[in-house]
Amino acid sequence: MKGIVRTLIGLVALLVLALGCMPLPPPAPPDTVVPTPTNTPKPSPTPASSDTPVPTPTNTPTPFPTPIPSPSPTDTPVPPPPPPPTDTPVPPPPPPPTDTPVPPSPPPPLPDPLLIDNCEDGNNRNLLGGYWFTYDDRGSGGTSEVVPPAGGEFYCTAGGAQGTGFSAQMTGRVTTAYQYGFIGMGTNFAEPRAPRDISGYRGISFWAKGDGKAYRISFPQASIQDFDYYGTVFVAPQGWTQVTILFADLRQGGFGAPVPWTGTDVFGIQWQTVGQPHNSIFLAVDELRFLP
Ligand SMILES: [Ca+2]
Q1: If I label 94, which of 67, 85, 113, 278 is the partner at 20 to 30 A Cα–Cα?
Q2: What residues contact residue 65 under an 8 Å CB cut-off, 6+ apart?
Q3: d(CA 218, ligand 1 centre) in Å
Q4: Contact 181, 190 (CB under 8 A)
């Protein structure tokens, strides 16, 4: 009997030793009932036999409950990156500046074959090519003065008829140094100076403004050499006024030889003072036209 006990004790000792070498089961969560060796039913004192089930602590360990991972900083929900800046809708480029609708330009004015000059081109010639000029009595011993000076260039002056920009103007004075003292201005129908046939026209018209004095408009012609040209006298109004001159109304001054008017050899037009003296002279003419 003692042998059996000893054997049992030895077995128990071996068992205890074996249990000591067994890896301890991981600590179970408090709520897990893990059989501990104390729960192990103590082996019966009956002799161990091969059919005696030896309880072992190798009970299948209760699986750990899946640990709930504690939130880690990395688990902090990362706010989604801000959406990439949406492409700012690029406004369509402004349409190219549309060509400003060009209003249909009025047809260019038809060449006015009747216009002799309107002084708007700013030069010293009329539209027929002839020059504007002034003259005075100094060649006859007088001392009358004209501006622009005789022999110099004659340019139209600002201030024209009917709101236009320029007109032909002369100023000056007429003295008595010469018995028939005078000053004047004129324009030729051609350059170089040459006679022109203007017999197809009834006359000319022009706009005049001046000092209220009388002026004689005359038409130098090739067939007259003594300066007694055909002409007529008009009074220069102080405001722009249209003046009409009919060739049929022209007469010679009477101091020279009578010559017929044919209108076929006319050099141009000139405006000349009448009488003397004149302390001041002012005459402007503009918008010269032939009368058909
Ligand atoms: Ca003008």
Answers
A1: 85
A2: 29, 32
A3: 21
A4: no
Write the CB contacts of 81 (distance below 8 Å, at least 6 apart in sequence). Answer: none
Distance in Å, CA 288 to ligand 1 centroid: 9
Q: Compute, in angstroms, the gap from residue 281 CA to the centroid of ligand 1.
A: 20
Dihedral Cα 136, 139, 140, 143, nearest 10 deg: 50
* CA 149 – ligand 1 centroid, Å: 21
What is the Cα Rg of the chain in Å?
A: 65
Query: How far apart, in whole angstroms, are the C-alpha atoms of residue 28 and residue 259?
Result: 153
- Residue 57 carries which side chain, given as an amino acid letter? P
User: Ligand 1: distance of its center to the CA of 170 in Å?
Assistant: 15
- Dist. CA 207 → ligand 1 center (Å): 9
113-162 confidence digits (pLDDT tens) = 899 999 999 889 999 999 999 999 999 999 999 999 999 999 999 999 99
In this structure, what token pair is assigned to residue 248? 């049929």
| DSSP letters for 232-251 | EEEE--SS-EEEEEEGGG-E
The position carrying tokens 């209760």 is 62
Å from CA of 157 to ligand 1 middle: 9
**Average pLDDT of the residues of the chain:** 79
Burial class (CB in 10 A: 0-12, 13-18, 19+), 118: buried
Look at 84-93, 258-267, 277-286 and tell me which has the smallest mean pLDDT: 84-93
164 CA to centre of ligand 1 in angstroms: 5
Joined together, the tokens standing for residue 274 give 């009448």
User: Cβ-count burial of 154 within 10 angstroms (0-12 exposed, 13-18 middle, 19+ buried)?
Assistant: buried
How would residue 18 be classed by pLDDT, with cut points 50, 70 and 90?
Answer: very low
